[in-house]
From TrEMBL, chains A, B:
Domain Non-reducing end beta-L-arabinofuranosidase-like GH127 middle stretches: 408-493
Organism domain of life: Bacteria
Annotated ranges, domain Non-reducing end beta-L-arabinofuranosidase-like GH127 C-terminal: 496-607
Record's signal peptide: none
Residue span(s) of domain Non-reducing end beta-L-arabinofuranosidase-like GH127 catalytic: 10-397
Pfam families to which the protein is assigned, alphabetical: Beta-AFase-like_GH127_cat (PF07944), Glyco_hydro127C (PF20737), Glyco_hydro127M (PF20736)
GO biological process terms on file: carbohydrate metabolic process
Protein name per the record: Glycosyl hydrolase
């Protein structure tokens, strides 16, 4: 059963409103960071507006496009003249920078480098994909100028890389999603055909660095290019590449009605979910190559878990949700948004993680840009993540629900106002802190429509208007609604202890704690002083008591439990006596809120 | 108590004789690989013997020097005209390649690149260090031609980088060990002074890549250059750099009588041993930056455990053993030789691991050069490891024992013939398969001398001539020996189960199995068919039975145990029932012998 996107959903308060407010405040700062980092200068040099040297990676235009998409989404949601002005100004520069034949890459143009000469790392198609998505977002916000730039670039790509063109592929997928978005907006079938061609061509080693290279640069797997997409059993290689490709290929499968391709992609997503996804929903296990590990290779401490990979996985899951109506994908979206995307941004919206570790030891060091040892950072040398967070939070209302003339499906619970044609509802809730969700009908047609409410897989004991609702389904209420009618959903939010898949080695003997959609973590400031986190063991039989603390970390529900502290021991014979343990109180905070009081030791997986 | 190296020790059979025979056969092949890989061409171009382009990294001369050291050690041990001929031919080329002022780097010269311009990666001093060690080894084998090249290069370095010279440091330590070796051989104190200066200068960020770089290239920690050596509490950064620096700094401490420096280095070694060393003795946890991880970051599956790091750590431990007489360092050497160096080479001597994983899952993929997924390889693009293994095995007899006029200290047990002046003994044993070691006096002076026998820390219940000997000490027999007198040492070789230090997360709930100096592993071919190794749990209460199998893996003692197989389960609520387990027989092989029947799944740490 396919679902239909629902534009115009509003978030009217609560958890996500706070996070989105911080994000909105960060968007103008993002423009300033792009200026400081030289992204805007490169475009202005290519446009002939200034002179100088374009510094940095050739894919930095994508940061600008992602920022524009974020700004356009915010401007569409809540008009903002300043943002609109920035968008127009940037559009003028970008249009001026574009080559006669439609090609556009400010850094390569400004440096006079040959086009497509370093396809495995230049990411020219990837940038194009972000341009297309930005252009459509701008057009939906009433700013249509960028669309012309986008279609000209797309026409150039279709002419150059279409089925009869140059066979090489860009090293970084991303163009596919953008091309399908542009096709949907313009109706131009050549864009869909090009996306389909890119998807079908991948898998024969045309994307990797030619010649010998001992590292991942010469490995087709790094580029999602080792196995044709229809034959791939799982995801591998560079995590962002892999999930962006999955999302774009799903777009192609949906728009071309390719059931075989869709089935293959569902299988790959499922293999990722069950064998290569951290408990937080984050994906990508390896720093080396920013890559997926093997199945069951899920180290909390060295999780790469790049922010952009989580964002790409959300986009992939969203497309699969629309294509199939399977609530498992909505569960995935909820899990990843709360525990893999949101941890990447500080509560004040001013700092970002590139890498989202699940475990920070005392005194651990690593590189300054990406390691949690140094806390969240205002921006990055390779700044893919911050504007990606911006556009994701700006676009969040679109993920709340889907709908059609037949009714509404609610996937994410937030105080919100939702409308599908002549059926409109208001949602009120203190979720994710409380599990009571009240849907009030504001406007209803004089015919039967359906209100479908997602019951998360974890939510056993849920009720809709008092009747038991099965986890992992949509509870469906079909009737002729009257305005004012309320439907009350109760999702029991008891704390849950989870253990890893048995073949995962890195978290053996540990539990993760979750409550509702939130994964929890131990952070040093909440424990007894002088305790080394690695010495704590949680008593799994002791109750975990929830307490909402409005003054802590912008308002969080913490969990109180108990356990023991055993002083550290060296390597020793099995069975030799341990030093005596002493009891300790344990307090857990939502994982997304960690590292907002300095970069303290933290762990998601806790030994029992 | 300082110990004194004992030249002239002979290995007369047994375990190491077989491994050294394979190594000796591999040495001429190594020369061929150096030719095929272009290392020799680069030298010949620089020498004006041929024309062409020097390919590859600027530190590839070091591969040649390490090979020469190996060949010289073998030639000295057992004269070989073919090897001597190769050494002379290479020496002529190298001498011709050397610049007028003593500088020498074939790749940089052949390419006309500026000297010392990319110090963080060009490794010109590191190459010099290997040249010095090769030159001394050649001279000891009667081939003195390379010594003149070495002293000319050392003189150039002393003039250019001495205390009044250029303050920048080479990115890769190694010169220090070579300079001290050259000082010992020539008596030239300027070489010791330069080594001392290099050691003292490190720790203020003069080795790293200047300017901004988001990766480890700009991080002084990568270069063992973040903290002055006297202030460092542990090792960090690139593992080979760190242990080579430790070894060279220990040389300086010993030769300058610097007790404070020696104490600091002992502390760093101990911090490495207790918090950053795998159970096999391997060091270096991270693929990213080929680096040490934080304390207790010891993932078996993603252990980098570079072969060269183990070799460097052996050299460091050897220097600390000589400096202190502490048998713990000899235990370390034995552990690392058997379980961190030896696993890097195939039983036939024809293939090498660069990275020594402690766990290979079914179907895991990674880069072709370094991943265990592809098995050992004949050579590498960056071929630091194979000739390093060659010189280590070639030089192994020198590590068996130390001695002086006062007697002999035996550190490693092998059938061997040892002599300290007028005191000579023969050792016979089937160690490491059996624990009985018989030392027969062949020649003895007419005065009291001491025979000191290392009792490993793991060897509780050991006896010397029937008397109990304490583990972790040297059992000392002091008397006026008569030729023919036998001293019988018994080291009980029962299988042992070990658990990690409690703060190590990656191996929680697992045991490693060891017997004598050998760490054992589960490898797929020895288990029941169709069992996934990750599903096996060892019963720690069941006995482990040793069986020597002469026909398996060039002769190994395997261990038979029992346990269960539990089918894999997905992530699930804590406490939910597991599928039923079935009993299984378990067979373990010595870890060093894995991957000699194809690159099968393997694990060192086994869940209980």
């Amino acid at each position: 059963m396919t679902l239909h996107p629902l534009p115009g959903s509003r978030i009217t308060g609560g958890f996500w409103a706070r996070r989105r407010a911080a994000n909105r405040a960060a968007i103008p700062v993002g423009h300033q960071r792009l200026a400081e980092a030289g992204n805007l200068a490169a475009l202005r040099i290519a446009a002939g507006e200034t002179t100088g040297t374009a510094e940095g990676a050739s894919f930095r235009d994508s940061d600008v496009y992602k920022w524009m998409e974020a700004a356009a989404l915010e401007h569409a949601y809540s008009p903002d003249d300043a943002l609109a002005g920035r968008l127009r100004e940037l559009t003028r520069t970008i249009a001026a920078a574009q080559c006669e034949d439609g090609y556009l890459n400010s850094v390569i143009q400004a440096r006079g480098e040959p086009r497509y000469a370093r396809r495995w790392m230049s990411h020219e198609h990837y940038c194009a994909g972000h341009l297309f998505q930005a252009a459509v977002a701008c057009a939906r916000a009433g700013e249509t100028g960028l669309l012309r730039v986008a279609t000209r670039f797309a026409d150039h790509l279709a002419a150059t890389f279409g089925p009869d063109g140059w066979p090489e592929l860009d090293g970084h997928p991303g163009a596919e999603m953008g091309l399908v978005e542009l096709y949907r907006h313009t109706g131009e079938t050549r864009y869909l055909a090009l996306a389909r061609h890119f998807v079908g061509s991948r898998g024969s080693g045309r994307a990797s660095k030619p010649g010998f290279d001992p590292s991942h640069y010469a490995d087709p797997a790094h580029y999602a290019d080792r196995v044709p997409v229809r034959e791939a059993a799982t995801v591998e290689g560079h995590a962002v590449r892999a999930v962006y490709f999955g999302a774009g290929a799903t777009d192609v499968a949906v728009e071309t009605g390719d059931a075989g391709l869709l089935a293959a992609l569902r299988g790959q997503y499922d293999a990722m979910r069950t064998r290569k996804q951290h408990v937080t929903g984050a994906v990508g296990s390896r720093w080396d190559g920013e890559a997926f590990g093997g199945a069951d290779e899920l180290p909390p401490d060295r999780a790469y878990a790049e922010t952009c990979a989580a964002i790409g996985a959300v986009r992939w899951a969203w497309r699969l949700l629309l294509a199939t109506g399977d609530p498992g994908y909505a569960d995935q979206i909820e899990l990843m948004l709360h525990n893999a995307v949101l941890p990447a941004v500080s509560l004040d919206g001013a700092g970002y993680f590139y890498v989202n570790t699940l475990h920070r030891r005392t005194g651990a060091r690593a590189d300054v840009q990406r390691s949690a040892a140094h806390g969240r950072r205002p921006w990055f040398h390779c700044a893919c993540c911050p504007p990606n967070v911006m556009r994701t939070l700006a676009g969040l209302p679109d993920l709340l629900a889907t709908g059609s003339r037949d009714g509404l499906e609610i996937h994410l619970y937030s105080p919100s106002s939702l409308r599908a044609g002549d059926f409109a509802v208001d949602v009120s809730t203190a979720y994710p802190w409380e599990g009571r969700i009240v849907v009030t009908v504001r406007e209803a047609p004089d015919r039967e429509v359906e209100l479908a409410l997602r019951i998360p897989e974890w939510a056993s004991g849920s009720t809709v208007d008092g009747a038991v609702a099965a986890p992992g389904t949509y509870a469906r209420v079909r009737r002729t609604f009257r305005p004012g009618k309320q439907v009350v959903l109760n999702l029991p939010l008891h704390a849950r202890l989870l253990v890893s898949a048995s073949r995962v080695d890195a978290t053996r003997g540990c539990v993760a704690v979750a409550r509702g959609p939130l994964v929890y973590a131990l952070e040093k400031p909440d424990q007894e002083p002088d305790v080394v986190l690695e010495d704590i063991r949680l008593d799994p039989a002791a109750p975990l008591r929830a307490e909402h603390r409005a003054g802590l970390l912008d308002g969080v529900t913490v969990l109180h439990g108990s356990g023991t502290v055993t002083p550290g021991t060296p390597q020793r014979p099995f069975g030799s006596p341990e030093p005596p343990a002493r009891p300790t109180d344990i307090t857990l905070i939502p994982y997304y809120a960690w590292a907002n009081r300095g970069p303290h030791p933290m762990r998601v997986w806790i030994p029992v």
